[in-house]
Amino acid sequence: MNYPGLRLERHDDYLQITLDHGKVNAIDSILARSLRDAILATTEDESIRGVLLAGTPGRFSAGLDFRHMARSSMDEALEFWELYLGCLQAWIRYPRPTVAAITGYAPAGATTLALCCDHRVMGFHEKYRVGLHEFTIGLMVPQLMMDIYAYHLGDAKAWKYVQEAKLMTSEQGAAEGLVDQSVNLDDVLSVAESTLKRQLQLPSHSYAITKQYATRRLREVASRSMEDMLADIATFVKDPMTQQMMQMLAAG
């Protein structure tokens, strides 16, 4: 099956999913759909015992493609959010090991995507950052994204950092729990592969059951109905100030 914006490579008993969508791997409707559908298909294939999510060298993802959304109709914008939020839900619910190899800049929606994985390896570079910085352009953080961020940081710290639009290097992210390993940029993929292979040594059934227990709160926040989540977003998108900001983004 074809997944536009992704490259899939089978390695023995795991699958490597590499983001390869334009210059900066910005997440639009095409990429969000592919990410959702690829992990759902992988869930059904029990011969695939784990997934490595990677960017291309120097690029993980620039996050959500807000300019694409700004030029979209209301129906198109809500379709995007349904695809992206559905993608996050699917990655959270995946029962087997997932490791993110963060090979470059990964703010906002890319941070949230990586946080849906069980383990995150990020390369150190002063320009490569993680965190939610939507407030820099005056946009809301949808509830599921906020809940995922707060699951890893704690409610108070997550809200503090969102207000500050704080972006962190791999070392800072590791200190805060957003990143599990900060490594040399050239070593990201090899370290991520070693980590996944180590997890795959465990019996799949034992891993899946324990993961379900350990990530119970995360799975709970991902269980909110899509209809309710989209209703909240629609209210925000229809607001006149939001429309004005979107027009400015579209013109930028």
For the structure shown, list the relevant keywords:
single chain, 252 residues, alpha/beta, 2-enoyl-CoA Hydratase, Chain A, domain 1, 6-stranded mixed β-sheet, 3-stranded parallel β-sheet, 9 strands, 52% helix, globular
Give the SSE layout:
Elements: E1 6-11, E2 14-19, H1 29-44, E3 51-54, E4 58-59, H2 66-70, H3 74-93, E5 98-102, E6 104-107, H4 109-115, E7 119-124, E8 130-131, H5 143-153, H6 155-164, H7 170-176, E9 181-184, H8 188-199, H9 204-214, H10 216-221, H11 226-238, H12 240-251
Parallel strand pairs: 2-3, 3-5, 4-6, 5-7, 6-8, 7-9
Antiparallel strand pairs: 1-2
Helix pairs in contact: 1-3, 3-11, 5-6
Describe the protein.
The chain has a single domain, classed as Alpha-Beta Complex (2-enoyl-CoA Hydratase, Chain A, domain 1), CATH 3.90.226.10. 52% of the residues lie in helices and 15% in strands. With 252 residues, the chain is of the alpha/beta class. It is globular. The model has no long low-confidence stretch (mean pLDDT 94). Helix 1 packs parallel to helix 3.
